[in-house]
């Protein structure tokens, strides 16, 4: 008989999470979500790690606490029709450097030439170079290295 004290049981099924993570590996997807109504599991790949999130637990707000962060309006996403916008040609994971620990391909303020590699997007275990369509100066890098990106999402602004 096991005399170790029991911890509070989590509503998350670890086997389901492992199955979803394996499904990500098998299919090359960057994220997957499973919802049963009262339980929602989202597994997302960022780099080589797998992230799991569950719905937040509702708690009474502390009257002396600062306002919640979700009341802050995030900056609007750059317009994909902007003439200097370089968008992702596929769903995948973006990398700003050729390998971990290496310097980024480009930084804000760098001058770039047409055809110069700006970053990589990994999809289906293949690294795809994202190249500058025109020369100019890197004004904004919109994504973070290791973040999942969607088709058509703005990655960088070159003007």
Q: Overview of this structure, please?
A:
- β7 (117-123) and β8 form a beta hairpin.
- The protein folds into two domains: 14-56, no CATH class; 85-158, RNA polymerase II/Efflux pump adaptor protein, barrel-sandwich hybrid domain (OB fold (Dihydrolipoamide Acetyltransferase, E2P), Beta Barrel).
- The protein has 159 residues and is mainly β.
- It has one helix and eleven strands; from the N terminus they run αβββββββββββ.
- The chain is 9% helix and 33% strand.
- The N and C termini lie far apart (69 Å).
- The longest helix is centred in the N-terminal third of the chain and has 14 residues, at 14-27.
What structural keywords apply?
single chain; 159 residues; mainly beta; OB fold (Dihydrolipoamide Acetyltransferase, E2P); 4-stranded antiparallel sheet; 1 helix; 11 strands; 9% helix; 33% strand
- The span between the termini is 69 Å
Rg:
20 Å
Order of helices and strands: HEEEEEEEEEEE
Structural class: mainly beta
Largest sheet: 4 strands, antiparallel
Which CATH architecture of the largest domain would you pick? Beta Barrel
Percent of residues in β-strands: 25-35%
Record field, number of beta strands: 11
Q: What sort of overall outline do the alpha carbons produce when their principal axes are compared? A: globular
Q: CATH topology of the largest domain, which one?
A: OB fold (Dihydrolipoamide Acetyltransferase, E2P)
Mean pLDDT: 78
| Fraction of residues in H or I helices | under 10%
| CATH C-level label of the largest domain | Mainly Beta
């Amino acid at each position: 008989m096991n005399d170790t004290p029991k911890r509070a049981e989590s509503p998350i099924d670890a086997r389901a999470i492992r199955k979803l993570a394996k499904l990500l590996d098998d299919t090359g997807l960057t994220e997957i979500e499973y919802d049963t109504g009262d339980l929602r599991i989202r597994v997302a790949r960022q780099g080589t790690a797998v992230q799991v999130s569950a719905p937040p637990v509702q708690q009474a707000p502390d009257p002396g606490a600062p306002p919640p962060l979700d009341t802050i309006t995030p900056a609007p996403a750059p317009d994909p029709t902007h003439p200097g916008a370089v968008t992702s040609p596929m769903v995948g994971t973006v990398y700003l450097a050729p390998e971990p620990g290496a310097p980024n391909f480009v930084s804000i303020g760098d001058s770039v030439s047409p055809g110069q590699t700006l970053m990589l997007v990994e999809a289906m275990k293949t690294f795809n170079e994202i190249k500058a369509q025109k020369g100019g100066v890197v004004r904004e890098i919109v994504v973070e290295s290791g973040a999942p990106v969607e088709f058509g999402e703005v990655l960088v602004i070159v003007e």
